């Protein structure tokens, strides 16, 4: 199976090796059907979920390095912070009535990482820090809660994203329930959808009580399997590699070997192929074949965990 490089990638073929390697090592979004479907559901939540009396939210579940954070970042980038008070930057639809109702400054999507030491006060502190709102560590729980509620509303936050929600399992069952109840109360008071994301253990974190679990619709990012969708994913990745020769991994045997090496994780698949492409430039082979895959020296996280000897650390 042959494949054309993207137009952007073709332009890079005459660049220096250093520039091509720098381009390969950039972060970029890989589009694929499951991610498109989940992003569409999150977008619907953004457009139609805010302000509802009964908010239905999403729990995004997937293994580490399987694309959760990249997917969330893609959504966040689509809804960046804004300041309509700055002269010359107002969209046509901004009117005087808008400023009567809103502040004109907004963070439509707020992203935080769940506290590793689960507690309500730590959750509120993380939100305030992300918003750059000053507070005192000795402030009471009620004071922090009021600050969070005020600024989430004042800054027009339409969706709160809490990544790594499985972190709350580090706490006692009582602490887990407290922090999940705090998230539920924030969502209810502000009529604001919440997106939680984490590994499969996150399902346990959400199931602290029926009132909480019923609010979250699970969406799953599963590991990749050998099928047309997976080969299409490989083709998309290869099309973004500024290599001067045709890569040859888009066949069943090679694709299956890559899948086994990476255990089906998209993050590992992307990083392995990138490492192979860099190796191909440095060695002059200028293509990714199964030989570059085997020889590039990339060590998957799964392999690191299997071979790590703590006595040597």
């Amino acid at each position: 199976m042959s494949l054309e490089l993207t137009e952007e990638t073709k332009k890079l073929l005459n660049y220096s090796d250093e520039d091509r390697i720098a381009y390969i090592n950039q972060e970029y979004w890989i589009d694929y059907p499951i991610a498109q479907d989940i992003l569409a559901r999150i977008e619907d939540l953004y457009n139609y979920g805010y302000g509802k009396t009964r908010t239905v939210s999403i729990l995004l579940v997937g293994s580490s390095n399987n694309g959760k954070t990249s997917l969330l970042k893609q959504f966040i980038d689509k809804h960046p912070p804004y300041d309509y008070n700055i002269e010359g930057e107002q969209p046509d639809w901004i009117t005087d009535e808008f400023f009567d109702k809103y502040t004109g400054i907004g963070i439509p999507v707020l992203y935080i990482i769940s506290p590793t030491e689960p507690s309500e006060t730590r959750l509120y502190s993380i939100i305030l820090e992300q918003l750059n709102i000053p507070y005192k560590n000795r402030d009471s729980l009620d004071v922090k809660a009021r600050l969070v509620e005020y600024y989430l509303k004042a800054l027009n936050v339409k969706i709160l994203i809490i990544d790594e929600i499985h972190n709350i399992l580090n706490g006692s069952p009582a602490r887990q329930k407290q922090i999940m109840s705090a998230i539920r109360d924030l969502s209810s008071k502000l009529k604001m959808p919440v997106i939680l994301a984490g590994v499969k253990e996150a399902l346990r974190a959400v199931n602290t009580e029926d009132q909480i679990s019923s609010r979250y619709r699970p969406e799953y990012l599963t590991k990749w399997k050998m099928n047309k969708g997976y080969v299409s994913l490989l083709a998309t990745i290869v099309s973004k590699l500024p290599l001067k020769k045709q890569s040859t991994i888009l066949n069943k045997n090679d694709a299956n070997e890559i899948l086994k090496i990476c255990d089906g994780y998209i993050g590992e698949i992307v990083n392995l192929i990138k490492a192979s492409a860099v190796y191909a430039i440095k060695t002059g082979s200028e293509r990714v074949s199964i030989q570059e895959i085997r020889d590039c020296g990339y060590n998957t996280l799964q392999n690191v965990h299997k071979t790590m000897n703590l006595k040597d650390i």
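The chain has 15 helices and seven strands. The CA atoms of residues 63 and 199 lie 5 Å apart.
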